[in-house]
Amino acid sequence: MDQRAEDGGTPPAIAAPTNGNGHAGNGHAGNGHGHAGNGHVGADAARAANGAQPKPPTAAVAVLIPTHNDGGTMEALLRRVLAEPAVGDVVVVASGCDDDTVSIVSETAAGDARVQLFVEAERSGKASAINFGMEQRLRLPYVVIVSGDVLPEPGAIGLLVTALAQPGVGLAGGRPVPDNPTSTAMGHASHLLWRLHHRLALQQPKLGEMIAIRTEAVVALPRTSVDEACFQSLLETAGWKARYVPEALVANRGPCTVRDFVRQRRQIHTGHLWLRHREHYSVPSLRLGLLLREFWRDLAEEPQGRRPRPLAFTAGTVALEASARLLARLDYLKGRENVVWAMVKSTKGGAPGSDGLGAGGS
What we know:
Layout (H helix, E strand, L loop, with lengths): L2 H4 L7 E2 L27 H7 L11 E7 L3 H12 L4 E9 L5 H11 L3 E6 L5 H9 L7 E5 L4 E2 L3 H9 L4 E10 L6 H19 L6 E5 L12 H11 L3 E12 L5 H22 L8 H14 L6 H26 L29
Parallel strand pairs: 2-3, 2-5, 3-4, 7-9
Antiparallel strand pairs: 1-4, 5-8, 6-9, 7-8
């Protein structure tokens, strides 16, 4: 594997974007990174002739979507993102997809000049895909990074960009809300964890799922499996402020099986341990005293959660989280980190409703 991918650099083999007609774009190899070029230079005029939507003149935001096998949510995500008035570019980096993700993005790109698709034949890690995508859009003042398996609520991107307009703020993130039903054990677990995430973020910004960054603050990610937390550590070290914007909702899908829950939590916690080791930065969920305090507050303020069935679900969640953290600690002590995440399959795929994910939870 190309060493740059191992270090969180640009992916080693990005194919040229298509022009919406099934042909390779006007890419240029040998650009100093071993990648095919943009392929969309001068595309606006040609697409306008074909009835494609031109870029809005007031566009200030580029959206970067790193994705792997998110065909179930990609169409709804692109539709939602492109409906935001401030969005001027959408860069999709599809890594090792073997579902219909690429075809969905290609079809959208054929009708909207703002969309660019880059295809990575093999996965090299999310940080690598983000670094490559960052190289494509530096002309706009803001960039929003959103995972391919979530769905921002209408207006959420605008709220994050508004937060970035505050002096000294270089990074902003919204509030993830799972769409899993709370009536199941795993759905309860997802809602409990994301409520705690929200409570912790109110004390110390803890950003995830969708973040917005000032272009002038952008830095290349090093080797990491926790990209949002890594961005926050690097930007805060450089003197920028981070802002949590709880009104900017982004719907996601939590793990639906015990195995997937432990796998996801293990990978996240391992990444946080390595981040603390490499960057000397601790996310608030590593502060055990703060975590326990917010946990008890959540129990006190959620009357429904004190009934026998939810209490049993909560006890099970605590046990699973503890086991995941123990496994993560062992991974860390053995020098392991999944920069290329193992798939958490039950978090993929569309959800009920025509727009895929929704911020429901009952």
